[in-house]
Design goal:
heterodimer; A: 247 residues; mainly alpha; 76% helix; flat; B: 241 residues; alpha+beta; 4-stranded antiparallel sheet
Chain lengths: 247, 241
């Protein structure tokens, strides 16, 4: 079996487990979601470990790798570090399916192992990229909670507040570490690159969240942060060329 | 008491943010940059760069590009310049690579990229010599199949070309790699031999020299801002105004 075949197998198995698990959350009355989510997480972790052994670098250098890494971080946080009821959490698990499915359906050319470009061979890759993904995870959770708040009966504002704190702080860390790294590798800390501007816009929405008292405006800013995140992560990567176009 | 601390943290958070913005603008506006391409053995014109940036020279060392290594293949990518710094008293060897800038008396040097400059590339094809720089894409066998090749990868400064034989409809009949040391055997070509007989090129290092007077202040204020923001969010403070 080729390395891509093994990766696809890990992805499909984890995808199948997540699908069964989410269905079970709605149909059956599962009390301990951590135990149920663990097998899927293990398969995602297997994918990460296997991919690292194939490419010999961090598992988030392109869209394919970063999607699985993003879904792993997201699943880990929702499953083990979010204090919410299973009724709310079952909706939070949905984005994992979307992320894994997108990663699986990407063209084989984008999945091919590639050497890291010299600019990416840096100590800062271990801080800058994960910082943004932690922030993206929080923004996604915040967005789902806002939707639950809007269309459900329970208030999720405390959960959203905490997630927006993480989003704001880790986006700031991503921007600062990115500036230091950019200065070191490109000789300039700010290039007005589409992805840099996208990250700045996300940060502005998270700051705006803390500077308003209106609940409706807060929810609007969370939605805007999420839309900016989707635009920065997907649209800029595939639709625009720039220094950060790592596909 | 708790409210006072909270107010003080919020005040310092905003103050550090304002300072960060000021130094961000100052660093962007006052940064001076120049880019140059150097061949092996060539000197970096430090006095001219200083004059261009308008900064005084305390000492003027000679900085010469001793060696430049390029590795650009599917498996590995790096390029680095080895500089020889000749001071009044001693000689030092300094390595400049991507993510490893050099600081020479206030001037920062960055390894930006590299360029490949051909001087000569002569290929023997079916017993005839072809100057590839002049007769590009003019290689055909007796059946009218077209032979093409392009620079493909550079491993330790040695170029490997990718060759392909196209039929008249533009379909690839055969393809492979070719370097000066590696002669491919193409059985359907009459004389069975294609080789590089003359190959002269220069791999040049592209370097950026920068003067960054406010960068340290920007870094300090940015780190300070992150610390205060972290304290404000996660050390028992409320995140909202």
């Amino acid at each position: 079996m080729t390395s891509l075949g093994v990766e696809n197998l890990f992805l499909l198995v984890s995808l199948a487990i997540w699908l069964i698990f989410i269905l079970a959350c709605f149909v059956l009355k599962i009390k301990n979601d951590k135990t149920a989510a663990l097998p899927a997480l293990i398969f995602q972790l297997c994918w990460i470990v296997y991919r690292v052994s194939v490419v010999h670098h961090v598992p988030f250098s392109g869209m394919y790798e970063s999607l699985v890494f993003f879904s792993f971080l997201y699943a880990l946080k929702v499953g083990f570090f979010t204090k919410l009821s299973i009724k709310a959490k079952r909706f939070l698990y949905f984005p994992i399916i979307l992320m894994l499915l997108t990663a699986f359906l990407l063209s084989p050319a984008l999945k091919e192992p590639r050497a890291l470009s010299p600019a990416l061979e840096s100590f800062w890759i271990y801080f800058h990229v994960p910082a943004f993904f932690i922030s993206y995870v929080s923004i996604t959770i915040g967005f789902v909670l806002v939707l639950l708040n809007r269309f459900g009966s329970r208030s999720m504002s405390d959960g959203v507040l905490l997630e927006m704190k993480y989003a704001c702080y880790f986006t700031a860390i991503g921007l600062v570490t990115g500036g230091i790294w950019g200065q070191q590798s490109w000789g300039i800390f700010w290039n007005w690159d589409p992805k840099e501007i996208g990250a700045l816009i996300i940060w502005i929405w998270t700051i705006a969240y803390f500077h308003t008292k209106s609940m409706k405006l807060k929810q609007l800013f969370v939605c805007l942060a999420f839309l900016s995140m989707v635009f920065t992560y997907f649209v800029i990567t595939f639709g625009m060329s720039g220094l950060h176009s790592y596909r | 008491m708790k409210t006072r601390i909270k107010s003080a943290v919020i005040f310092f958070l905003h103050l550090s943010f304002i300072f960060m913005l000021i130094f961000f603008a100052a660093a962007l506006l006052h940064q001076k940059q120049t880019r140059m391409t150097l061949s092996k053995g060539q000197e970096l014109p430090l006095p001219a760069i200083r004059k261009d940036f308008g900064i005084p020279a305390f000492f003027n060392p000679i900085l010469r590009l001793g060696n430049f290594i390029v590795y650009d293949s599917k498996d590995k990518q790096y390029f680095e310049s080895d500089f020889v710094l000749i001071d009044q008293k001693k000689t030092n060897h300094l390595k400049l690579a991507v993510n490893q800038p050099l600081d020479i008396d206030g001037i920062k040097l960055y390894q930006k990229s590299w360029v490949l400059e051909f001087h000569q590339l002569v290929v023997s094809f079916l017993g005839r010599k072809y100057n590839m720089l002049a007769d590009h894409n003019a290689l055909c066998d007796t059946n009218g199949n077209e032979f093409q090749f392009t620079a493909y990868s550079v491993v330790s400064n040695q170029i490997t070309y990718q060759w392909a034989l196209f039929d008249r409809s533009g379909k690839i009949i055969q393809k492979g790699d070719l370097s000066k040391r590696n002669i491919p055997i193409l059985p359907f070509i009459e004389q069975n031999k294609v080789s590089i007989i003359q190959e002269e090129y220069d791999l040049k290092s592209v370097i950026q020299a920068s003067y960054e007077p406010y960068h340290l202040f920007l870094l300090i204020t940015a780190v300070l801002f992150l610390l205060i923001l972290g304290y404000h969010f996660f050390a028992g403070m409320e995140g909202e105004k």
